[in-house]
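Workshop exercise sheet. Pairs work together: one partner reads the sequence aloud, the other fills in the structure field after running the prediction. Swap roles for the next sheet.
Pair: D.N. / O.F.
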Amino acid sequence: MPAASRRGIVALVCSRALRGAVGVCVVLLVAAGIVLAHFIASLGPLDLAQVEERSIVVSDREGRLLRAFTTPQGRWRLPVGVDDVDPRFITLLTAYEDRRFRSHFGIDVLAMMRAAAQVVLNGRVVSGGSTLTMQVARLLEPREERDLAAKLRQAVRAVQLERRFDKDTILGFYLTMAPYGGNLEGIRAASLAYFGKEPKRLSLAEAALLVALPQSPETRRPDRFPEAARAARDRVLARALVQGEITDAEAQAAREAPVPTGRQRVPVLAPHLAEAVVRAAPGRREHRLTLDARLQARLEDLARETAERVDPRASAAIIAIDNSSGAVRAYVGAADYFSAERAGAVDAVLAVRSPGSALKPFIYALAFESGLAHPETVLDDRPSRYGIYQPKNFDLTFQGTVTARHALQLSLNVPAVELLSEIGPVRLLARLRAAGADIVLPKDSAPGLAIGLGGVGVRLFDLARLYAAFARGGVVPTLWWQDGAAPAGEGPRLTEPVAAWYVADVLRGAPAPQNGLPGLIAYKTGTSYGYRDAWAIGFDRRTTIAVWVGRPDGAAVPGLVARQVAAPMLFEAFARRGGVSEPVPEPPGVIHATTASLPPPLRHLRKDVPKTVAAVAQAPLRIAFPPDGARVDLGLSEGGGAPLALKASGGSPPFLWYVNGAPLGPHSPRREATWEADGRGFARVTVVDGRGATDSVTVRVE
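Structure field:
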């Protein structure tokens, strides 16, 4: 057969074989495509539930972490994005894990070919071919399998992720979910636990360690296997050096840095307030408060230090307010949240306690507002009696004739009671309640003169608001702590601007404790009866801070005097706040004068009670009818019932009657009243006269 013919036959056979091979390849590709399509369809839609399952976090007004809560599974997984991480970490991560992350479509074909070739040549896996996107896919759908089907599943999911999200979002998924040992997930939780800092401020050595840990989080945990962690970190540094991402000097310095050998506590700042806002909105994952995390940490340290000096079971509370807006800048509910001995779970900012002398400035504010007195008005600090009530000063001495300024600065009891007797305790109580304060009277008692010296219950929260009014021209702020939720409009008015400024000016001259400078802030202290509570509330133009020290169980603490304990704490709180303290600005209408140059009606405390009334007032106030313990038949058992007649003797008009704590009507100059009983049983009857004296009886009506 001619050579040409043989060549033609060979060519024909080869052509047919080639076409057959191409056909087979096409069939195989089509079949593979059909199988792949079925495989993709079997996977279902991409599930992002894992990345959405994050810790609830509470942050301050600038986004600094105050407190975080573990997920329902007990894991720390804090939200984090690319912009929240040191750029060097991102550089090291991509250099070590996925050099072509920014350019591939979810699958790095070159890396997979390299990994396959290494398996063939070495008989084992030398390097993986997974991209960061494929690792995210594995974290989104965690499985135990590590076979070819699992790799194919990850590859498919990686492509789906790349088609749906941009590169930074995918990287954010990795930063949030990557495992770091134990119950730590995500770089933010790991950075806080191992280094006590946010990932935005990582050093090169710290960044390299956090790049290495997710490869084998349990065997490289620095708190358990520090040498393994160090070796893994150094491998990351070595690869970054080879790729030219860092210099020799940087690599050497990073290798010499120590590896942490323990875990630190995730921040727990403002725990009481954080828990309250989380309970109020359980569906929210992120809460931002008006607090300042740095100030909060400083004041929590101050509360703990103070309580430790006072008593093994003492606690302390602090609240700091921005006077201009009413925003809460610090909220310390207890000295040690985790201490059972100090009852740290009790939020003392909201606990009702006796304020001691801390209510006196409000007595003076009402006296100044009503024109009854001026800071330079002369008062008498001498033994006095109001019915059966005889007030005494804290040191059991008397100053004689003093100005209102001097009396308030020294916290003298007798002049304060003298003013309150003219104003009326009911009026003071009504004004404080109208300003939004929750004032609690002792059970079955009516307001008497003792309320001015601490005979009521009040919260530190409310005292802080009331004192802030002195820095705001008499307007009480509406406190808020959820960032972006500022209240609209002004709060209630406590007193007029001039009266508020008078009080602020007087309190600014109060003697400072040993750790403070005089004239720095306006402040007042209060020590409750029996040394159970020590208070100090102070303010300047921009901030009001209120502190409390005592035992949460209400037990007495020997030597717990506010001036010696709470006042130094208050001045230290202002020092830790920082900045310069400016006085409250003066409003129009202020009278600057000495006692001698005041208008005559203001030189001495004005007494508007007529002489005839004063003579009657010498007799003590008593309930003449019904007598204490009496049983009075009003005919209630027969379905009807006559009113109960009430009569008083002595005292100074006007009179106000209460039954079971409820007033029967407005003040009356008459000493008689009637009460319509609504059923059989016991009743507590109380009468209060115009000078604050009280008397009470208990009767049974039938």
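Discussion prompt: The mean pLDDT is 87. What would you look at next?
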